[in-house]
Amino acid sequence: MTRIALVTGGTRGIGAAIAKALADAGHQVIATYQGNDEAASAFSRDTGIPARKWDVTDFDACQSEVAAIEQEFGGIDVLVNNAGITRDGMLHKMGIDDWEAVIQTNLTSAFNMTRAVINGMRDRGFGRIIQISSINGQKGQMGQANYAAAKAGLIGFTKSVAQENARKGVTANVIAPGYVGTDMVAAVPENVLEKIIGQIPVSRLGQVEEIGAAVVYLAGDAAGFVTGSTLSINGGQYMS
Length: 240
Ligand code: CAA
Known about the structure:
Elements: E1 4-7, H1 13-24, E2 28-33, H2 37-47, E3 51-53, H3 59-73, E4 78-81, H4 96-124, E5 127-132, H5 135-139, H6 145-165, E6 170-177, H7 183-186, H8 190-198, H9 208-219, E7 230-233
Parallel strand pairs: 1-2, 1-4, 2-3, 4-5, 5-6, 6-7
Helix pairs in contact: 1-9, 3-4, 4-6
The chain binds acetoacetyl-coenzyme A (CAA).
Acetoacetyl-coenzyme A (CAA) is lined by residues 86, 88-90, 134-136, 141-144, 147, 179, 184-185, 188-189, 191-192, 195-196.
């Protein structure tokens, strides 16, 4: 039986690696993206994974786009809420726009998407909801009051969803990656990134494939007893 997996922000960075890993593990994967048409076309051309474009901060768009995908491919069995942005800046200089953009994109989107798939998962008696949080949601990070708040919020959200849906065969878990070699991390100023890598016991950035492999595990039957957990994948930078 082929399971259907939806990965938000799934055409670049960690999301693309997750989408590919799920496809390699035998899932029918659909990736979403918001802005970068060129990257999405290249991703779909290279992988054969379809990409759908909409804004995951838009509640109504999430409901209608998920309904259309379910019509075409079947009920979504695995949802990976990966879409995320940064708008880094010290709190004393941060504007409300940077706060709201990050909360909407990184936290409200998880509500919008989970709400769109949850009833189908409950009805079918199987579901896997996987949130991509961050080390910085666990430990806080200077310059990321908005991002850390959103990523920490995902953990409480997930523990609640896990409790509500366990009896229906639906698990909900969080992966908290550390600093992984993506465009997002490449945007950190070089002198700051050097300091960060100095704080990682494994002495390197993570690789996107290391996150994809963990998602495949949590999405599978073998992880049916794992719910409400947060899996840190951070090279030992923070041990919670
Ligand atoms: N670790 C250690 N030191 C840090 C730091 C960090 N993450 N971020 C900032 N600093 C230090 C700077 O090195 C600097 O120290 P010195 O004065 O000793 O040189 C001091 O804090 C002030 O920093 P800036 O001079 O850069 O101040 P700014 O106002 O120009 O910029 C900033 C502030 C926007 C926060 C900038 O420092 C920055 O972008 N920092 C990186 C923040 C970060 O870690 N973002 C993570 C992005 S990746 C991601 O989010 C993925 C994920 O989930 C892990």
